[in-house]
Protein backbone atom coordinates (compact mmCIF):
# COMPACT_ATOMS: atom_id res chain seq x y z
CA UNK A 1 0.00 0.00 0.00
CA UNK A 2 2.98 2.30 0.30
CA UNK A 3 2.25 5.52 2.16
CA UNK A 4 -1.51 5.28 1.59
CA UNK A 5 -3.17 4.02 4.76
CA UNK A 6 -6.28 6.12 5.26
CA UNK A 7 -8.79 6.72 2.48
CA UNK A 8 -11.96 8.80 2.50
CA UNK A 9 -14.64 7.87 -0.02
CA UNK A 10 -16.51 10.97 -1.14
CA UNK A 11 -20.02 10.21 -2.37
CA UNK A 12 -23.66 11.34 -2.33
CA UNK A 13 -23.95 15.06 -2.88
CA UNK A 14 -27.02 16.86 -4.16
CA UNK A 15 -27.07 16.21 -7.92
CA UNK A 16 -29.61 14.22 -9.91
CA UNK A 17 -27.16 11.31 -9.65
CA UNK A 18 -27.13 11.21 -5.85
CA UNK A 19 -28.72 7.76 -5.50
CA UNK A 20 -26.30 6.19 -7.97
CA UNK A 21 -23.39 7.91 -6.22
CA UNK A 22 -24.52 6.48 -2.88
CA UNK A 23 -24.46 2.97 -4.35
CA UNK A 24 -21.05 3.58 -5.94
CA UNK A 25 -19.60 5.03 -2.75
CA UNK A 26 -20.81 2.22 -0.53
CA UNK A 27 -19.38 -0.39 -2.89
CA UNK A 28 -16.00 1.35 -3.10
CA UNK A 29 -15.88 1.91 0.68
CA UNK A 30 -16.55 -1.77 1.40
CA UNK A 31 -13.85 -2.76 -1.09
CA UNK A 32 -11.32 -0.37 0.43
CA UNK A 33 -11.99 -1.77 3.90
CA UNK A 34 -11.63 -5.31 2.56
CA UNK A 35 -8.30 -4.31 1.00
CA UNK A 36 -6.98 -3.41 4.45
CA UNK A 37 -7.11 0.38 4.40
CA UNK A 38 -8.69 2.53 7.07
CA UNK A 39 -11.62 4.26 5.44
CA UNK A 40 -14.48 6.67 6.08
CA UNK A 41 -17.51 7.24 3.89
CA UNK A 42 -18.28 10.95 3.59
CA UNK A 43 -21.43 12.39 2.02
CA UNK A 44 -20.39 15.53 0.14
CA UNK A 45 -23.47 17.40 1.31
CA UNK A 46 -22.36 16.87 4.92
CA UNK A 47 -18.85 18.20 4.29
CA UNK A 48 -18.49 21.74 5.58
CA UNK A 49 -14.93 22.37 4.43
CA UNK A 50 -12.56 20.43 2.19
CA UNK A 51 -9.83 21.03 4.78
CA UNK A 52 -11.52 18.28 6.78
CA UNK A 53 -10.15 15.84 4.19
CA UNK A 54 -6.52 16.68 4.99
CA UNK A 55 -6.44 14.00 7.68
CA UNK A 56 -6.64 11.32 4.98
CA UNK A 57 -3.83 10.05 2.76
CA UNK A 58 -6.10 9.73 -0.25
CA UNK A 59 -9.62 10.62 -1.42
CA UNK A 60 -11.55 8.23 -3.61
CA UNK A 61 -14.06 10.32 -5.57
CA UNK A 62 -17.30 8.37 -6.05
CA UNK A 63 -19.25 11.62 -6.35
CA UNK A 64 -21.23 11.83 -9.60
CA UNK A 65 -22.75 14.89 -11.22
CA UNK A 66 -21.42 18.45 -11.25
CA UNK A 67 -19.99 18.28 -7.73
CA UNK A 68 -17.67 15.39 -8.53
CA UNK A 69 -17.12 15.52 -12.27
CA UNK A 70 -16.96 19.16 -13.38
CA UNK A 71 -13.37 19.76 -12.25
CA UNK A 72 -14.07 22.23 -9.42
CA UNK A 73 -13.61 19.61 -6.70
CA UNK A 74 -10.39 18.43 -8.32
CA UNK A 75 -9.04 21.99 -8.52
CA UNK A 76 -9.87 22.63 -4.87
CA UNK A 77 -8.19 19.37 -3.81
CA UNK A 78 -5.12 20.28 -5.86
CA UNK A 79 -4.96 23.66 -4.11
CA UNK A 80 -4.98 21.84 -0.76
CA UNK A 81 -2.36 19.27 -1.92
CA UNK A 82 -4.79 16.42 -1.25
CA UNK A 83 -4.34 13.24 -3.30
CA UNK A 84 -7.45 11.93 -5.03
CA UNK A 85 -8.60 9.37 -7.60
CA UNK A 86 -8.99 10.02 -11.28
CA UNK A 87 -8.41 12.91 -13.64
CA UNK A 88 -7.37 16.45 -12.83
CA UNK A 89 -9.52 19.59 -13.07
CA UNK A 90 -8.78 20.34 -16.73
CA UNK A 91 -9.77 16.90 -18.01
CA UNK A 92 -12.86 16.79 -15.79
CA UNK A 93 -14.11 20.21 -16.88
CA UNK A 94 -13.65 19.30 -20.56
CA UNK A 95 -15.29 15.87 -20.37
CA UNK A 96 -18.16 17.18 -18.24
CA UNK A 97 -19.16 19.46 -21.13
CA UNK A 98 -20.27 17.42 -24.15
CA UNK A 99 -19.83 20.39 -26.51
CA UNK A 100 -16.19 20.87 -25.48
CA UNK A 101 -15.56 17.12 -25.56
CA UNK A 102 -16.82 16.92 -29.12
CA UNK A 103 -14.73 19.90 -30.21
CA UNK A 104 -11.56 18.26 -28.88
CA UNK A 105 -12.45 14.90 -30.40
CA UNK A 106 -12.93 16.53 -33.82
CA UNK A 107 -9.64 18.43 -33.50
CA UNK A 108 -7.95 15.06 -32.92
CA UNK A 109 -9.73 13.35 -35.85
CA UNK A 110 -11.68 11.06 -33.54
CA UNK A 111 -15.13 10.10 -34.83
CA UNK A 112 -18.05 11.61 -32.93
CA UNK A 113 -21.63 12.23 -34.11
CA UNK A 114 -22.39 15.57 -35.78
CA UNK A 115 -23.99 18.08 -33.41
CA UNK A 116 -25.16 21.67 -33.06
CA UNK A 117 -25.44 23.58 -29.80
CA UNK A 118 -28.16 25.84 -28.40
CA UNK A 119 -27.81 28.12 -25.39
CA UNK A 120 -31.08 26.86 -23.88
CA UNK A 121 -34.00 24.64 -24.86
CA UNK A 122 -36.44 27.52 -25.16
CA UNK A 123 -40.11 27.52 -26.10
CA UNK A 124 -39.08 29.21 -29.35
CA UNK A 125 -36.71 26.36 -30.25
CA UNK A 126 -39.45 23.83 -29.52
CA UNK A 127 -42.13 25.78 -31.39
CA UNK A 128 -40.02 26.52 -34.49
CA UNK A 129 -39.78 22.83 -35.31
CA UNK A 130 -37.15 20.96 -37.28
CA UNK A 131 -37.55 22.58 -40.70
CA UNK A 132 -35.11 25.36 -39.80
CA UNK A 133 -31.78 25.73 -41.62
CA UNK A 134 -29.56 24.88 -38.58
CA UNK A 135 -30.77 21.29 -38.85
CA UNK A 136 -29.66 20.98 -42.48
CA UNK A 137 -26.37 19.40 -41.41
CA UNK A 138 -28.33 16.34 -40.24
CA UNK A 139 -30.48 15.81 -43.33
CA UNK A 140 -31.78 13.37 -44.25
CA UNK A 141 -32.58 12.03 -40.78
CA UNK A 142 -35.21 9.91 -39.09
CA UNK A 143 -34.15 10.87 -35.58
CA UNK A 144 -32.01 13.31 -33.63
CA UNK A 145 -30.91 13.21 -30.03
CA UNK A 146 -31.38 16.25 -27.82
CA UNK A 147 -29.22 16.27 -24.70
CA UNK A 148 -27.89 18.76 -22.15
CA UNK A 149 -24.31 19.97 -22.46
CA UNK A 150 -23.65 19.01 -18.88
CA UNK A 151 -25.32 16.18 -16.97
CA UNK A 152 -25.12 12.46 -16.47
CA UNK A 153 -27.34 9.42 -16.07
CA UNK A 154 -29.30 10.29 -19.24
CA UNK A 155 -31.29 13.06 -17.51
CA UNK A 156 -33.18 15.22 -20.06
CA UNK A 157 -32.07 13.21 -23.10
CA UNK A 158 -34.71 12.91 -25.80
CA UNK A 159 -35.01 11.06 -29.10
CA UNK A 160 -36.59 13.50 -31.54
CA UNK A 161 -38.33 12.38 -34.74
CA UNK A 162 -40.60 15.29 -35.69
CA UNK A 163 -41.99 18.64 -34.57
CA UNK A 164 -44.45 17.04 -32.18
CA UNK A 165 -41.78 14.98 -30.39
CA UNK A 166 -39.70 18.16 -30.07
CA UNK A 167 -42.61 19.93 -28.36
CA UNK A 168 -43.20 16.93 -26.10
CA UNK A 169 -39.54 16.95 -25.13
CA UNK A 170 -39.89 20.60 -24.12
CA UNK A 171 -42.86 19.72 -21.89
CA UNK A 172 -41.00 16.83 -20.24
CA UNK A 173 -37.64 18.60 -19.84
CA UNK A 174 -36.76 19.07 -16.15
CA UNK A 175 -34.35 21.98 -16.72
CA UNK A 176 -34.39 23.76 -20.07
CA UNK A 177 -32.50 26.87 -18.89
CA UNK A 178 -29.07 25.52 -19.82
CA UNK A 179 -27.04 24.60 -22.89
CA UNK A 180 -28.23 21.70 -25.02
CA UNK A 181 -27.05 20.06 -28.19
CA UNK A 182 -28.83 18.34 -31.02
CA UNK A 183 -26.85 15.28 -32.03
CA UNK A 184 -26.90 13.03 -35.07
CA UNK A 185 -28.65 9.74 -34.39
CA UNK A 186 -26.46 6.81 -35.40
CA UNK A 187 -28.20 3.46 -35.56
CA UNK A 188 -26.01 0.73 -34.19
CA UNK A 189 -24.60 -0.98 -31.12
CA UNK A 190 -24.08 0.82 -27.81
CA UNK A 191 -20.66 0.00 -26.39
CA UNK A 192 -18.55 1.16 -23.48
CA UNK A 193 -14.84 0.75 -22.78
CA UNK A 194 -13.22 1.03 -19.37
CA UNK A 195 -9.71 2.48 -19.35
CA UNK A 196 -7.58 2.07 -16.21
CA UNK A 197 -3.94 3.14 -16.23
CA UNK A 198 -4.08 3.43 -20.04
CA UNK A 199 -5.18 -0.20 -20.37
CA UNK A 200 -8.46 -0.93 -22.16
CA UNK A 201 -10.59 -3.53 -20.43
CA UNK A 202 -12.89 -5.76 -22.54
CA UNK A 203 -15.64 -3.69 -24.21
CA UNK A 204 -19.18 -4.09 -22.90
CA UNK A 205 -22.23 -4.02 -25.16
CA UNK A 206 -25.41 -2.53 -23.72
CA UNK A 207 -28.64 -4.01 -25.04
CA UNK A 208 -31.94 -2.40 -24.06
CA UNK A 209 -35.56 -2.89 -25.09
CA UNK A 210 -36.08 0.85 -24.59
CA UNK A 211 -35.79 3.29 -27.50
CA UNK A 212 -32.29 4.11 -26.29
CA UNK A 213 -30.13 3.78 -23.18
CA UNK A 214 -32.17 6.24 -21.10
CA UNK A 215 -32.48 6.64 -17.31
CA UNK A 216 -35.01 3.83 -17.07
CA UNK A 217 -32.76 1.47 -19.05
CA UNK A 218 -29.77 2.39 -16.89
CA UNK A 219 -31.22 2.19 -13.41
CA UNK A 220 -34.77 0.81 -13.36
CA UNK A 221 -35.37 -1.78 -16.07
CA UNK A 222 -34.43 -5.40 -15.35
CA UNK A 223 -34.32 -6.08 -19.08
CA UNK A 224 -31.15 -4.11 -19.89
CA UNK A 225 -28.22 -6.41 -20.68
CA UNK A 226 -24.53 -5.62 -20.16
CA UNK A 227 -22.56 -8.30 -21.96
CA UNK A 228 -19.06 -8.76 -23.33
CA UNK A 229 -19.09 -7.25 -26.81
CA UNK A 230 -18.59 -9.78 -29.59
CA UNK A 231 -16.09 -8.06 -31.86
CA UNK A 232 -13.67 -9.30 -34.48
CA UNK A 233 -9.95 -9.00 -33.83
CA UNK A 234 -9.71 -5.91 -36.07
CA UNK A 235 -12.78 -4.32 -34.46
CA UNK A 236 -11.28 -4.93 -31.02
CA UNK A 237 -8.06 -3.23 -32.10
CA UNK A 238 -10.07 -0.29 -33.51
CA UNK A 239 -12.31 0.26 -30.48
CA UNK A 240 -9.40 0.08 -28.04
CA UNK A 241 -7.34 2.44 -30.19
CA UNK A 242 -10.09 5.06 -30.48
CA UNK A 243 -10.88 4.77 -26.74
CA UNK A 244 -7.24 5.36 -25.77
CA UNK A 245 -6.97 8.22 -28.26
CA UNK A 246 -10.05 9.85 -26.70
CA UNK A 247 -8.70 9.24 -23.17
CA UNK A 248 -5.41 10.95 -24.04
CA UNK A 249 -6.90 13.73 -26.19
CA UNK A 250 -8.99 14.86 -23.23
CA UNK A 251 -5.97 14.57 -20.87
CA UNK A 252 -7.60 11.95 -18.68
CA UNK A 253 -5.69 10.26 -15.88
CA UNK A 254 -5.99 6.99 -13.97
CA UNK A 255 -9.41 5.83 -15.15
CA UNK A 256 -12.39 6.70 -17.28
CA UNK A 257 -15.21 5.10 -19.22
CA UNK A 258 -15.53 5.79 -22.94
CA UNK A 259 -19.05 5.42 -24.39
CA UNK A 260 -19.33 4.65 -28.09
CA UNK A 261 -21.69 3.66 -30.91
CA UNK A 262 -20.73 1.23 -33.65
CA UNK A 263 -22.70 1.94 -36.81
CA UNK A 264 -23.99 -0.63 -39.28
CA UNK A 265 -20.78 -0.33 -41.33
CA UNK A 266 -18.60 -1.11 -38.32
CA UNK A 267 -17.35 2.44 -37.64
CA UNK A 268 -16.96 3.54 -34.02
CA UNK A 269 -18.09 6.96 -32.74
CA UNK A 270 -17.22 8.35 -29.31
CA UNK A 271 -20.37 9.67 -27.61
CA UNK A 272 -18.88 10.85 -24.32
CA UNK A 273 -16.21 10.27 -21.71
CA UNK A 274 -16.97 9.79 -18.02
CA UNK A 275 -14.16 10.58 -15.57
CA UNK A 276 -16.07 9.36 -12.48
CA UNK A 277 -17.87 6.26 -13.78
CA UNK A 278 -20.45 4.38 -11.76
CA UNK A 279 -19.10 1.74 -9.39
CA UNK A 280 -22.29 0.01 -8.32
CA UNK A 281 -22.22 -3.78 -8.31
CA UNK A 282 -23.93 -3.73 -11.73
CA UNK A 283 -21.86 -0.94 -13.28
CA UNK A 284 -19.86 -1.42 -16.45
CA UNK A 285 -16.42 -0.78 -14.93
CA UNK A 286 -16.46 -3.69 -12.45
CA UNK A 287 -18.33 -5.79 -15.03
CA UNK A 288 -15.56 -5.19 -17.55
CA UNK A 289 -12.92 -5.99 -14.93
CA UNK A 290 -14.63 -9.29 -14.18
CA UNK A 291 -14.09 -10.32 -17.82
CA UNK A 292 -10.36 -10.14 -17.07
CA UNK A 293 -10.85 -12.25 -13.95
CA UNK A 294 -10.61 -9.24 -11.62
CA UNK A 295 -12.78 -8.97 -8.53
CA UNK A 296 -14.56 -5.72 -7.67
CA UNK A 297 -11.93 -5.13 -4.94
CA UNK A 298 -9.07 -5.63 -7.38
CA UNK A 299 -10.60 -3.10 -9.79
CA UNK A 300 -10.79 -0.56 -6.94
CA UNK A 301 -7.13 -1.24 -6.07
CA UNK A 302 -6.13 -0.71 -9.71
CA UNK A 303 -7.91 2.66 -9.76
CA UNK A 304 -6.11 3.73 -6.58
CA UNK A 305 -2.71 2.61 -7.92
CA UNK A 306 -3.28 4.35 -11.26
CA UNK A 307 -4.17 7.60 -9.47
CA UNK A 308 -0.94 7.86 -7.49
Automatic annotation (TrEMBL):
Alphabetic keyword roster: ATP-binding, Cell shape, Cell wall biogenesis/degradation, Cytoplasm, Ligase, Magnesium, Manganese, Metal-binding, Nucleotide-binding, Peptidoglycan synthesis
EC number: 6.3.2.4
Gene3D superfamilies noted in UniProt: 3.40.50.20, ATP-grasp fold, A domain, ATP-grasp fold, B domain
Domain ATP-grasp as annotated: residue spans: 102-305
Protein name per Swiss-Prot or TrEMBL: D-alanine--D-alanine ligase
Subcellular location: Cytoplasm
Example GO biological process: peptidoglycan biosynthetic process
Key word DNA-binding present: no
Cofactor(s) listed in the protein's UniProt record: Mg(2+); Mn(2+)
Cofactor annotation comment: Binds 2 magnesium or manganese ions per subunit.
UniProt GO cellular component terms: cytoplasm
Residues annotated to bind Mg(2+) 2: 272, 274
Active site: 17, 153, 283
Pathway linked to the protein: Cell wall biogenesis; peptidoglycan biosynthesis
Cytoplasm recorded as keyword: yes
Native organism: SAR86 cluster bacterium
Residues at which Mg(2+) 1 binds: 259, 272
PROSITE patterns: ATP_GRASP (PS50975), DALA_DALA_LIGASE_2 (PS00844)
GO MF terms, alphabetically ordered: ATP binding; D-alanine-D-alanine ligase activity; metal ion binding
Family: Belongs to the D-alanine--D-alanine ligase family.
Functional note: Cell wall formation.
Chief location bin: cytoplasm
Highest taxon above the source species: Bacteria
Amino acid sequence: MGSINTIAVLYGGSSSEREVSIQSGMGVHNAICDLGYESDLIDFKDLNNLNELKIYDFIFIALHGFEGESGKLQKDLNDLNILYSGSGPEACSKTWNKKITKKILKENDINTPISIGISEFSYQVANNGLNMSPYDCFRPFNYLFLKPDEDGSSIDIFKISDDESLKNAYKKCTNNKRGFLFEEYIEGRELTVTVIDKECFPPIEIITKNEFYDYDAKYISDDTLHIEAKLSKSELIDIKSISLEAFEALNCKAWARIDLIQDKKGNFYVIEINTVPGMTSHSNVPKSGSLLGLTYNEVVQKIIDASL
